[in-house]
Write a structure and sequence with these properties.
Length: 413
Amino acid sequence: MNKTFVKNIGLLCTPTGSRVHAGAEQGQITKIENACALIEDGKITYCGPQAEAPAGAEQGAQIVDAQGRLVTPGLIDAHTHLVFGGWRQHEIPLKLAGAGYLDILRMGGGILSTVKHTREETEDQLYAKSLGFVHEMLAMGVTACEMKSGYGLNTETELKQLRVIRRLAESSPMDVASTFLGAHAVPEEYKDDADGYVDQMIRETLPAVAEQKLAQYCDVFCETGVFDVEQSRRVLEAGKALGLKPRIHADEIDAIGGAQLAGQVGAVSAEHLIAADEDGMAALAKGGVIADLLPATSFYLDKTFAPVRRMVELGIPVVIASDFNPGSCPSLNLPFAMNLGLLRYKLTPEEVLTAVTINAACSIGMEDRLGSLETGKQGDLVIWDAPDWEMLLYRFGSNLCHTVIKAGQPLAR
Ligand code: NIG
Ligand code: FE
């Protein structure tokens, strides 16, 4: 048996349970001083006060001494576009000159320029680059994440991206959920014919993705000038019919009805929601849709921030994720997004912790295994160079991750 004993935890902070925490529950965190955790064969068998640890807990175990530090569950980044070719730093002058995100896309830049590079790169090249990102994330305390395709926009390259995601899941310590985002933009080949592209995707690409079991989720960029509500509905319903659960990029720039659609199709999550209005939020609350919010994107696009306090008030479960991608958020730093969750969304530190642990786990279908530290869950935890969780959110810009333990194994740094 593989046994790890994490002792002398100064403070252990975790949500509890295996379901979303909404409203007042978003801020409910269990805090245990002088704690320890016992992990056997990857699973937690005890987590609580050290004084009450089971007899013989240390026997035959690999001992990790937290030396009084803070411990939380591994962080979960529920929204990334991590596999892509090239970068887009050349868009900076356009941005500074006042061009908006959708202006750049209309000029043939933006997502379409990343599509060009992603089509050109080999599977091995994409894999090597992405694996580097995965290690960067692990070093910041992120132990599970979601990854989307969407820079292929043809069957061949979408499948290539999804195969890279599968390889990353199989070959790295990261737990990975995979999302098919073929409807991320209208490719040059279908310029001015979004319907034609959607038809082709539903006919050819989606069935191939489902048949090869390359994704658990189907996503769509429902936005002005990209896919309208009806096109988005067609994509998500077609995905659902093939067993892919719907999630949606909604109300990122304009509120065109994406949040309402999320409620109607029973989406697991609606993501971005910067421009969400009362109607949209009511639909999310009614449909039990999780709000995956991406504050570092608001920051990088110089936009307003999603109306998160109102969402919590309405009982919508909130997640904070990075949105890591080369265009609207070239940062994979989830702790930075969490800082913005505190400072810009005005979430409390406890609400932020829930947003990147149990709620994030629910948003990517891993809530039975991940998202909290309690008996029966996977032993994914982070030892932070901090005495408490507030310190972590307060010292923005520093990486306070001390040790990552993944399924009971301390990872080398
Ligand atoms: O979530 N909005 C659509 N997709 C990404 C941006 C992708 C890109 O610009 O490359 C987002 O912001
Ligand atoms: Fe995104």
